[in-house]
């Protein structure tokens, strides 16, 4: 590896020789002295060079080198990657971190095209066109460090509990959720479909006796909508566990995972999040408030908002309203809306014993937006077939899935959660486009 | 949650009341006593019930209950999921773990269809048809516990080093590797393609200044071959790091990851692997042997094997031969074949300075099979465009990718590795079908 010191590690070093590598954020090319702000993945540092603008008569090789360095700095374009060896000097007058590096040698590793196609005020769409430049901003890059920490914390919980990591196929012979949002693939002589969720396959693991599984992977929805919360491809966080009594057990696991994730993120990135996003991250208290959907709708109605839907579901404004109510009443950013009506839930959600109009299911709302759906699944084959028919589905087409329930299966449940939505709401961002590495939508397949 | 004790935890409990839940592996229904082997995700335990075959005159309710339990056990079908509460008794005469549970109450949670469609000697294809039953076997299930441990160890290394987890899009506007193996997707009014690898996007992260990234996710190859090493969808382990001097730096990271993964797997599952697979897992010593490809081909030729290929590449038998040579000579299961010819490497591999016929690349061979390809990438835009042309590619079609190199990019490299292949070779399995949760091939999309 190129022998460099990460910028964040400079502060702990004594004055003396160092090598740093990164890209040029700014150049201030003054007559007598030149300043370069160099950034790497860990931070930014000021480089300084006393300018040598011309050679005196009889100048030596060292003077020539100084002139060359000065000219190289003058020619530096924003974004170029450079390696600089020089002298580290701690100096509290330097605003940026109280230190600077006096340039000895400068190596331009890759020169950037001087015309930078995006600026700080470019539109989101333009920034997405040039996502690799957009991601150089510390704020944007931090999102993916947070993602890393969040997921690692979740996996720590799963592994500790003995859950098994699976990688379910994304190529399927038929729909896992609804036909409407299905992408079709040319598959040799026939057709395949892209998985809308790992739902069927994580349930299969329960029939296989795995006890509990998790997966973080892509899911695909041929959803033509252009909202700030939808993508045609997104990263889904999925888990499914056996031997649940009800969806309460799924919610308990869900809470534990969120607390672990938020705790790790706050610990590792809390200060940076406050600085760059202006957000004081809070680790949510458990248990999260739970409100039956019917009650939530009443609360929203009492607040004066009429949900303009014919079915039994909430709408995005309703979710914002109930979230505001929970925040005002309980001071909590999260709320489980529970016991959704069967009419608006998929056939595989278990229905209440004694009241088949309701399901053992929930949505998790965070800062006003739904981030997850969870449920206990129906594991009794006769009931499951009945519920599929009830939804107008053809059990013939579901045979491979229904087979999972014909050779014994424990009661089970789980949830799926959109990673980009969690990050968006955690950081107060306006769109999942900001919290997705490379967004995919109906009109966006590039870069 | 249903309040149960995992079977593996019974040994540490004193004699007394316990509840266990799992599926019925076998029933021995003798006249006077009944035995059930119950298995859960952690192990198997013997349940015992003194049979009550008929009621005497004036029998009490308890006797009726005993009769009912006896009859329920007689009727138990293999595979049914049950919950049993009873008395744990340690008894060293019991072969299975030196303990048994005397059945108090038995609850049949889900009854299995009594006709089990697969048996121990079923063909692999038949077992794949009924994968959820196949995975109930301890040997098959262990593979996915090993997978979990292996990946968690790798991620531990990456996170410790500050690498960033990314989730690259699987829907692309054009090919990432070769047109030949591309799946086409109907994408709204147009077409998209499934990513053959995250190659372009993990390189994008280097241009974005991320420093280093990793991803474990699906990759798709419309490969019509039916070998034991190929799938149309597989889980790819990918990493890419900035500021490498050459492919040597990539190999050093690769070794470190393998050692961490194997160490964790050996520690957690070594005994079970020995028992179920007959394999004494070895943590590989570092550095792994490195042999230039040209030299490897000479060694193979000297062993008397003529590689039947017109190009400069190895073939599978050649890989087995060189692996055998390395095992005999260095006692090592791994070997890096380095410096592949440019003619058989993709356009984005960096070529040797001074000898453009060779690349800064390697394949990692493990127990005779290639599991990974790694390389330093060409980051100089002019050279990269030239190499693309040299391979007959149209730079126009690669514009979005080539842009990554026009605004500054550090030297970088990385590798991609097939998870199922590593597991197959680690456990001495014959096919990646055994080490893939749900295999996908030209004629397999179900379940």
TrEMBL record, chains A, B:
Pfam families documented for this protein: tRNA-synt_2, tRNA_anti-codon
Gene (UniProt): aspS
Assembly: Homodimer.
Binding site for L-aspartate: 177, 221, 373, 377
Major subcellular location class: cytoplasm
Coiled-coil regions listed: none
Residues noted as binding ATP in the record, renumbered to the chain: 370, 418-421
Segments of this protein annotated with the region Aspartate: 199-202
E.C. code: 6.1.1.12
Keywords in alphabetical order: Aminoacyl-tRNA synthetase, ATP-binding, Cytoplasm, Ligase, Nucleotide-binding, Protein biosynthesis
CDD domains xrefs: Asp_Lys_Asn_RS_N, AsxRS_core
Top EC class, one word: ligase
Residue ranges occupied by any Aminoacyl-transfer RNA synthetases class-II family profile domain in the UniProt entry: 144-447
Originating organism: Agromyces ramosus
HAMAP family: Asp_tRNA_synth_type2
Subcellular location: Cytoplasm
Family, similarity comment: Belongs to the class-II aminoacyl-tRNA synthetase family. Type 2 subfamily.
Protein name (record): Aspartate--tRNA ligase
PROSITE patterns: AA_TRNA_LIGASE_II
Task performed by this protein: Catalyzes the attachment of L-aspartate to tRNA(Asp) in a two-step reaction: L-aspartate is first activated by ATP to form Asp-AMP and then transferred to the acceptor end of tRNA(Asp).
Catalytic activity of the protein: tRNA(Asp) + L-aspartate + ATP = L-aspartyl-tRNA(Asp) + AMP + diphosphate
């Amino acid at each position: 590896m190129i022998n460099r010191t990460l910028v964040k590690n400079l502060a702990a070093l004594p004055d003396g020789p160092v090598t740093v590598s990164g890209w040029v954020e700014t150049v201030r090319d003054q007559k007598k002295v030149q300043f370069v702000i160099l950034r790497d993945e860990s931070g930014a540092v000021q480089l300084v060079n006393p300018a040598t603008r011309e050679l005196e008569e009889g100048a030596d090789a060292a003077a020539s080198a100084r002139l060359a360095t000065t000219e190289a700095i003058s020619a530096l374009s924003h974004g170029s990657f450079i390696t600089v060896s020089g002298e580290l000097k701690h100096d509290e007058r330097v605003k940026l971190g109280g230190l600077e590096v006096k340039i000895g040698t400068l190596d331009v590793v890759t020169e950037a095209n001087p015309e930078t196609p995006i600026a700080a005020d470019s539109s989101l769409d333009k920034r997405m066109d040039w996502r690799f430049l957009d991601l150089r901003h510390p704020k944007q890059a931090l999102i993916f460090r947070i993602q890393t920490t969040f997921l690692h914390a979740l996996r720590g919980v799963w592994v500790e509990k003995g859950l098994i990591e699976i990688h379910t196929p994304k190529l399927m012979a038929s729909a896992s959720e609804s036909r409407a949002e299905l992408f079709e693939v040319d598959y040799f002589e026939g057709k395949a479909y892209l998985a809308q969720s790992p739902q069927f396959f994580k349930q299969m693991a329960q029939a296989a006796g795995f006890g509990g599984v998790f997966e973080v992977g892509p899911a695909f929805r041929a959803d033509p909508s252009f909202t700030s919360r939808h993508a045609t491809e997104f990263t889904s966080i999925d888990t499914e566990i056996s031997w649940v009594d009800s969806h309460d057990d799924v919610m308990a696991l869900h809470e534990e995972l969120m607390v672990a994730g938020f705790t790790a993120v706050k610990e590792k990135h809390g200060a940076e999040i406050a600085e760059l996003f202006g957000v004081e991250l809070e680790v949510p208290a458990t248990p999260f408030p739970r409100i039956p959907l019917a009650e939530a709708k009443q609360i929203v109605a009492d607040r004066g908002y009429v949900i303009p839907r014919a079915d039994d579901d909430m709408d995005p404004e309703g979710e914002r309203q109930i979230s505001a109510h929970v925040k005002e009443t309980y001071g909590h950013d999260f709320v489980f809306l529970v016991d959704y009506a069967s009419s608006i839930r998929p056939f595989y959600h278990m229905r209440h014993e004694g009241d088949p109009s309701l399901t053992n299911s929930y949505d998790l709302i965070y800062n006003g937006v739904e981030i997850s759906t969870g449920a206990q699944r129906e594991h009794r084959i006769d009931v499951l077939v009945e519920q599929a028919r009830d939804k107008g589905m053809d059990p013939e087409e579901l045979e491979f899935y229904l087979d999972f329930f014909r050779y014994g299966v424990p009661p089970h449940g789980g949830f799926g959660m959109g990673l980009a939505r969690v990050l968006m709401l955690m950081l107060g961002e306006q769109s999942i486009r900001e919290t997705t590495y490379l967004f995919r939508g109906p009109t966006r397949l590039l870069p």
